[in-house]
Structure formats: C-alpha cells, structure tokens
Amino acid sequence: MPRITFKPSSKTADVPGGTALTDAIRLAGIEMDMACGGQGTCGKCMVRVEEGDFKTEDSGILPHAAREEGFVLACRTAVAGSAMTVHVPRTVERPEGRFVDEGDAGWLVRDEPEYGSADPIVIRLQLRVPRPRPEEGLSDADRLERTLRQQTGNRRVDIPLKAIRSLARTLREYDGEVTVSLARGPEGDRVIEVESGERPAEAVGLAVDIGTTTVAVRLVSLPSSRVLATRADYNSQIACGSDVISRIHYARDAIRLDELRIRVSGTVNSLVINAARSLGIRPESILGAVVAGNTTMIHLLLGLNPDPIRLAPYTPTVLRVPPLEADEIGIAIHPRSPVLISPGVGSYVGGDITAGLLCTGLPEETDAVSLFLDIGTNGELVVGNRDFLLSCACSAGPAFEGGGVEHGMRASAGAIEKVEVDPGSGRAGVRTIGSAKPLGLCGSGMISLLAGLYRTGWMDPAGRLSRSRRSPAVRIEGRRARYLVVPASDSGTGGDITVSETDIDAVIRAKAAVFSAIGLLLERAEVRIDRIKTLYIAGGFGRVLNQEDATTLGLIPDLPAEKIKFLGNASLAGACRALASGGQRERLFGIAGRMTYIELNTSPEYMDRYTAAMFLPHTDRGLFPSVQPAGGLR
Amino acid sequence: MPRITFKPSSKTADVPGGTALTDAIRLAGIEMDMACGGQGTCGKCMVRVEEGDFKTEDSGILPHAAREEGFVLACRTAVAGSAMTVHVPRTVERPEGRFVDEGDAGWLVRDEPEYGSADPIVIRLQLRVPRPRPEEGLSDADRLERTLRQQTGNRRVDIPLKAIRSLARTLREYDGEVTVSLARGPEGDRVIEVESGERPAEAVGLAVDIGTTTVAVRLVSLPSSRVLATRADYNSQIACGSDVISRIHYARDAIRLDELRIRVSGTVNSLVINAARSLGIRPESILGAVVAGNTTMIHLLLGLNPDPIRLAPYTPTVLRVPPLEADEIGIAIHPRSPVLISPGVGSYVGGDITAGLLCTGLPEETDAVSLFLDIGTNGELVVGNRDFLLSCACSAGPAFEGGGVEHGMRASAGAIEKVEVDPGSGRAGVRTIGSAKPLGLCGSGMISLLAGLYRTGWMDPAGRLSRSRRSPAVRIEGRRARYLVVPASDSGTGGDITVSETDIDAVIRAKAAVFSAIGLLLERAEVRIDRIKTLYIAGGFGRVLNQEDATTLGLIPDLPAEKIKFLGNASLAGACRALASGGQRERLFGIAGRMTYIELNTSPEYMDRYTAAMFLPHTDRGLFPSVQPAGGLR
After folding, report:
1. Distance between CA atoms of A629 and A624, rounded to whole angstroms?
2. Do the domains B354-398+508-623 and B207-351 match in fold?
3. pTM > 0.90: yes or no
4. Which of B145, B296, B315, B589 to mutate to test the interface with A (most CBs of A within 10 A)?
5. Which CATH topology does B207-351 take?
C-alpha cells in the first residue's frame, strides 16, 4: 500500500490508492479542522504535496499561485502513486482542547427563579428491608419493592434484572440495610442500583449542553441543586466541519456517522471524567443526566443519520427522545443512569432552546410578550408568552464562539473578552479572561473590538478598516486590511494577534443573520419591538457581553438596559433545573409541545432583511436611535 | 504445569497442582455426568488413576476393592505430581444430546380449552406512515407513533432508541410503507423493529419449558396459535448435577454460576436454532418468548445465585421477574424480543406450575376441588379451586425422566415406553417410541415394567426381584439382582438393556415422594381423595403414562379413569397459551398471586408418609382397592 509521509511531524499512514488525503491525515493521527465537512469550500485543509503522484480536483477556492507551488485541498485530493510526501502547515493542525473551569460557585443560585417542587431525576434512599418470613412467600425482590413503596407513597417501582443480579448478597450483607438509587419517572420509579449498608443520601447528577462548537458539562448535587463543578471544551466534531450543515455532509456514510457519535460522546466523557476527578469521585458514581443540544447534535449523539434535517421538508428522525440509560449512548456515568434528552421543536430549534427557556419566565408571561435569543453557531429565537410561543433559527456561523476566525478562541483563560480602542492612535488595549497573557479573541472580545473600532471611526459601517487615517494598528495588505490587536511581544502565543477584514466580515454576517431573524420573527408574531417586556440573551459568550457593544454592532435591538437579561449558558442551566426538579421536567415537555417553529431559510424576505443588516448598526439607522454614528466620539 | 492425559481418548489438560480431576476432565473437553454436583456422594465420576501422584478423599462411597484397583472419585481427587494418566470409563462420559421432534402437529389444538381473547405477546402491523408535512412539525418517530396509535385504539406505544436508529431510511424506502413488530404489554406497546415494505403479518413466538432434566421449546405462529415445531433435549446442566440441590451446590462460585447460566441458555438456543432451521427461518426472526421453569432453573437462567433457595427460610431472589428483552438473558431470538418469565410461587413451586395450571380449569373451578400434579425431577402439586390454591413440592429425582437410572433415557426415539412381562417366563416384550431399536427406558417404560413385574409376581411389593422362582430374565449378582429388559442382540446400543434393583429402588423412592406429598397436601387442604373432581397429570413422561400402571405402582391415587386427565408437558403448553393470549397472561399472574406454598421438607409427618409409601402400591392396601395383590394374575 502507498505510504504517505507528513512533514514536519514525519507521521505516516499506509493507505490504498484512491484514498483522500484528509483520511490519510486523520489515519496518521494528525487532528485537522475541516470546517466545510470535506466539500472543498472552506480551504482549511490546504496542504502542499512535496513528492508523489496524486489526483486533485480544483474547487476554485485555491489561488492560482498556491496551486503553482503545489498546494492542494486535502479533501479534494486522492493518492495515486506508490508513495507521497505531504507538508501539513502548522495552521492546519488543530491544537489540543483545553479543559476550562468556568467558575462554578453559585451559578445556579444566582439570579435564577425557584425550581418548583424539588423532585430530582434520581434519589437515594436508605432503607432497611425486613428479613424474609417463610409464611409471607415473598422473594427478595418482593420485599425490596414493598419497602420502597412504603417509602415513596406507594409509587410504582420497576426493579430491572441487572439490579436484581446481586440483590441476594447485598440484602444479607448488613441484615437488610441498603441504599437504593432510584430513577424517578412521571409514572413510577426504576431501581438503578442497590448497595449494601448506609451510603450517602446525596446523588450527583450531570447536566450537558452540546453545542456545535462548544460542549459544557456541570455536576450538580441532588437534591440540594448545589453546583459541584463545571467544565467546557470544544466539541471534537469540529475537525469534521464547523457548522451543522458541514457535519451533516460529513456524516454521509455509516462509519463517519459513527465517528461523529464517538467524537461527541468522547468530548462529553473527557469533561465528565475531568470534573469528577476534581471532586475525587468516580464517573460511575454519577447517577442521572439531562442532555440539551440542538437537533443535529442530538441526532449525532444518538447515532442517527442527520441527513433528513438538511433536506426539505427538514424532518428530524426524533424530537422527543425516549427515556434512555447512559450505556445506550456511551456516556461514561453509571451505565443504568437515566438520561433525559431535552425535547426539540424542529430541525433547527432543539432541546437546548427548550432547556434555555426554563431559565426564563417567558413561557408563563401573562400580560406582556418577551423575546429569548440564544446565540451560538446557530442563533435561535423564541417570542411569546402564556398564549403562544413562536420560534425560528438562523445560521450565524461559529464567529461568536471564536470559531472560523483566524485568532478566535473559546471564552476561556487567555481569551480577550474586552477591547478598548484608543480614538487617537487607533491602538487597542485588551482585557483577558483570568488576566492571562492574551491568546486570541473570544466572541465578546470580537464584538467589543468591532464596536470600539466603529465608535472611534477606525472602521466604517461596512466593516472596512480606515485607509485614509493611518494607525500603526492597521496594516494594509493589498486590497484587504488587518488590525493588530496584540503584538507578538505581548501575546501568549509568540505571534501577533490580529483581526482581518475577512474576520470582521464573518462577525458582521453573523450579527446580520441574527438581527434579521429577530425582525422577521417579531413581524410574524405581530409584536412591535417596544412591546417586548424582556429580552433574554443566552449563549456561551453572553456571560460578559456588553449591551452597548452589542447594540452598537446591531446584533440586538436597541432597548433600555433594564429590559435586557443576560443568561449565560441557559441551555446548561436549564438542564440543571430539569435534573433537580420534576416540575421543571414537566414544564420542559410542556414548552416543547406548545412551541411552533417557523422556517426562515425559505423566506425571500429574510434575505432582504439580511442584506439590510450588513451595516453597523443597520442601514435603517432609525432602528438604533441610541447608537452614535461612526466616529461620533471624535 | 502438570499435564493430565485421559484414556482411552488421549485427550489432555494442563492444569495447576491442586486442581480437581473433575475440572481437568472438563477442561480436556470430556463431558461427564456429576449427578451430586461434586459432593462425592453419587459416585458417577469414578475414574482410575494409572500413573502419577494425587490426593484423594475417601467419601465412603467407593467399595474397598475399587480403591485397591486405583479407582477414585474425580470430584474428590486433586492433582499432586507433575503428570498423570487417568482412565475415564466409557460409562462416565455423557453421550451427545439428541434433538427430538416430539410430534408437533396440532398439539395445542387437541384437547385444550379456549385461550380467551387472542392478544398475542407480539403482533406485526403493516402500516403506511404519512409523509412529513412541514407545518405539522412532527419527527419521523412522531408520525410513526401517531400512525400506530390510530391502528391500536390509541394505545400507548414506546419507540426505543434502537428501533429509531434506522427509522429515517426505513420510512423512506417504500414511501412510508412499513411493517412494525410490537411487543404488547398490559400498559402499552413497545416497538421491537420497523421493517420497510409490506412483510408477513405472521409473527413466530417461542415457548420454553426449562426442566431440571429436560428442556423443551416450541415455535408457535401468532396470532393463529398454530404449532410450527417442537424440540426437546436434556438440560446440559446435567453434567453439573442431576437435581436442583446438586446444581445449587455446583453454583457455589461466580464462574460456575455463569457456567450453569451458559449451559442452560446454550441448550435452549441449540433447540431454537434446530427448530428454526426445520422451518427455514432465522432464529432472529422469532419475536417473543414465554419461559416457564422451576424457580432454581429460572434463577440459573438469569444468572442469579440460587443458594438462598436451598437454605432456610428458602427465599428466592425473585419470583415475578421483570419484563425482559431476549439479549438480556442470551436467548438467541430477536435481541429486542419481549421475554416473559412465568411467575413462580416459592422456592420449590415455580413458573412451570403456574404455566401448567393454564391448561386446566382448576383455578376457576366453582363447585368442586381438583388436583394438579406435575411429575419431573421434582414433583409439584396444586389442590384447589376458585376459592383457594394450595401447593407443595417434593423431590422425586430424575428417574421418571430416565435420569439416574443405568439404562434410563429421555422419552425420545428408541426409548422403551411400554413393557409387557410374560407371567410364565418373566421375559419382557417392549414397545419403543418411533418403533426404533430400543436404546433404553424412559419414565413411562420404567413404570410399565415395574407394574408388569409386580402384577406377574416377578417382583415383590418392596421392589425385590424374585429369587425363588427363576426366570432367564432375572440375574442374581451376589445380594442384588438385575432384570434383563432387552438382550444385546436386540438392542440398538449393542449391549444388554437391564434394570437393576438399585434402579427399581430409585423409581420406588420417586413414587413414594410424590404419593406421600399428595396425601399430606390433601390432608392440609382438608379434602378427601374421593372429593377430587379431576386429577390433572402433567410431566414429560405423562404423554404415554398408563393410568393402570401408575396406580399399580402407587404413584397416583386410585381414582376412576374418567377423573384423570393427562396433560403431557403442561408447562410448555401453558407457555404457548401465554404467548398467544393477553387474557392468559393476566390469568397466569393472577394464579401466581393467589397460590399459597406449603413447605413439606420440614414436616416430620412427611417422612412417615414417605416410608409408608415405599411399597407397591402402598403399605396401606386400602388406599388402592382396585390394585390386585402381587402376582395376583396367576
């Protein structure tokens, strides 16, 4: 078989002729971003063939000069000879994911309404099961069931075979004294495990938010709802495409579908293991989970082919996932833990949104209408109250999560989350998460930078950096320009941290996608923007999003500050609520059942609105009365 | 490691010093009966050490002369030197099991009351699921659920993840035309599998009867209840002990427990595969099962340690087993098939008895009392009617199933099922199953022989063959005698088929155990024998049991022929009914819930009755007025 050698790592892969270079790269153990899912459109997999024969397709994205130098798109190039040497640029390789502690303490408690009646998804009961009495004719399982019914108000309880297997020994070890872990369901309970003796009555539950770009997990003590640990990392599926459509493309055969399934469960499991280790507990001691994610991510987690989501009439295979046990989907907690998947509404409004709404009063609002906005790789919106819930979605791209941007990064230590632009020199001053040396810009940093550049006149409403006034921070490179945020000397990466006009364009497209969706949804709902009582903003970046910056950019409507409520990762927080409370779980399914999904992708009106929103803050300045014109501070 | 070589097969096993010879024999791949489960009491594992050092314990069972010749009990002997040569007598090796077709046609139909409303455990529905309509916002699973509910009278239906995995493709293959296999439950249905297109509406179900000695399976077409195939074979656990107590002894560690579990599921699976092959279907196409067996057999099938069954207060781990799927217990039908385990009543009255009662009108009897008797390795008895159900059990040993008897065999082709003894010469004439060359005696043959010998005076009431009158068929061997049933020249084995006084003794002990249990149970229930309306007799041998022979032996009470009803394998037939009818499944659990179990083992009165029953027909001849005295025909 032809051997492919990759420089500079000298890693190799032996593959049959005809194999795509992307597959060979992966086989050699090199992690690589493939933002478009292998369609030849993102150019992220550009490599240089130094030696050997190959067949390549020109997708039109590579400049002529690059092709002359031997550059090809790995996803469009197949091995043709007996050996190849390929140079993989360092920028193509993806750095290792970092686990980040996002500040655990008190998150659930802060600023959140009551959960309703506490009835966590799992409970632990300390029982004494009476000894057998021959005249009763009861088996061990019968006596356990009788004792459990006495303790739970005669609720129905199922004792599955796996929980029965060691029952005889467990019951006899401490003369009937046992601790039973119970999964609670609306119609009855299920025994997860019976342990001998008196064990802690606390159960640890797991909340998971699976985003296209970011996966976050949180461990919660039940029934107290105390947050024990939170961890987040990039979804390792990123290597297979940066947005849901690319992932769906990538998943076109069963092996790749399984790869995506394994990648996402792998990311979740790494985070769970890391969080559990920080608490000194075994992952298997975690006894229940609630998972929220968009519809595509949930399909991939479940190993379901997501292709029908992409194609009209956009029909997902499942929206209300049946109750699962952890080992059915490869989540590394107690294998018989109940796993509740937050119910989705449509192909592009998933269970992350229904979970997020649990953190708001919107679904029960009686005398007003509120708007919920979750901004990630997709933007999802819900408008409504007790009487109606209308939702829609738009594709923002990964820019707000630091993806698809040259020096973008997740909102973790070292990320620039705030930028001040000096009006005179045009130079930037930055603040990073954890006050670490800057490594790149997260979404809020990007928004802060653009708002600053716009306000100081160093960037025009179309996102073009100033050519007339010259700043040492603005570098003109032919027809494009680039802004220096942090010079190599001050950065933690050893290189300049810059933002190109292409990056700026990505952010403007993202904000235009979101804002035009807001406008269209409100129009469909016949709600005027000034009638909105509360604008809830959720999303990983939302933790430090500055309202003024977001309004200046034209990302969110121009509303008084008191009407805006930032929720942070509402999907994760909502999953925690569902873990902790039966009332919230009921509410969750009620919300999903009531929500109506409106498809915007097919609406020509959406494109018009999108184009109009491609300026800062908007072509219709009347929509943003409080925003000063560009350079207005001078 | 010491190498053990076994003669005459020359098979070898390398085992550490200290290993029991029984384990080495098994490792060498030699199947061996170990009737007592390795307690050193049955003498079945007697082998001769030809060379090498060993340590052996004298359990007192081996004659002095045998020990002198180098014979030892393999279960009591451990390897001590560096190599051994051991001679394993041919009689110790167990012959390969034979699959036997027990005559399938019409069994369920013949002589059986109505099943009640037909609602088989699985149904197959041919559906057309409407295409998705975007405005409905329904997933594939939602539309399938809606279509199913329309067809099933809005019954609740669960669609598990595994059935969802290929749903998108399956629904689209023939434009929504699918065939759905549904497991029916009292509270709703569960989707087993969705197949594309219009497939046969017939489902094949499996009934299993797991006896200590014999395992029988039957494939049934649903909903028609037509019997498709029946197969039976020895339970391969026999190699680990011939009765339940020996098996429980054998299962003393986790590895051996697992061995027993694998042996019994292996026996079931061999039979299922054989039966399926005869129909030209794949075992995986079988979609539901009902399993009946005694409490110990069910514990072993489920991998539950049966030890608590053996020890006071005789508490099984489980009696009502939760609903299972086939892959949970390793039954090789469709992995997601529902498996219903017939509910047991106590440690010694299991689900085989509750299933057997389904074949009778006993539990609903209004104006009389009936008696149900299931004779196998254990005898189980139920007396009662609509108002009460009293049950008890006794240990008969395997003699009635052809076990534990030198030339005993299952009721399969070649088994002698009827013997005529010539009053003058004392010689036997035999009838075999399938008119094949005789291979041995099954239970009914043994009973027929003993009754014949008794009636003709060639055997006295204590089971002693005649010494005073000499017959060429009676051979005196020191203090014991032996009866020649078939000489080598006429047998299918190439050797004489004989019955020793030890064998006769085993049968008499077995009948005494059963008859004394009947007497004691009726006394406890305060029912006189002549008040019994019907005596139902179940058991593998019961198919051809002759009432007169059984009464002559004193196995069953002396009742008019019209009161006696032979059911054959009622446990298997009851399992078929539960497969076919929801009403019967409900009845099954109702019967189990109403039944009271009486422990006889601890009753001193039982021993007195047992001793009194050790004669033919009984020491109290008044109990058997219709039976002539021994030799009374002369």
Report:
1. 10
2. yes
3. no
4. B315
5. Nucleotidyltransferase; domain 5 (3.30.420)
